[in-house]
Prior knowledge:
Blueprint: H1 21-63, H2 66-103
Amino acid sequence: MQGDHRSHDRPAPDQSSPGRARTDRPYRRRALHLLRRSVYALTALLGLSLLVIGTIAIIAEVKGTWHWSIHLESTLSYVGLFVQYLLAVLVPLFGLFVAVRGRWSDA
């Protein structure tokens, strides 16, 4: 029946804090979504930087010239510094993401 809407069909509201339960969920979802996207974006940057190092290392090995070995050394230097700062941000964000996801599993 289309017009028959019974109250037992609706999910029960959160009983822990009735005043804040419905207003906190959109903010929790938004915060969790932002945190997830940040972790995924930084992880993608980490993967791309490792792909760049691997590509230049393969080219340097195949070419075998001093020119490409210099490229490899400078790339390792710059990307190593980039990865160091990236991991300094990514590791705490990932820990926060895991902790928040476990605590706000209903978000």
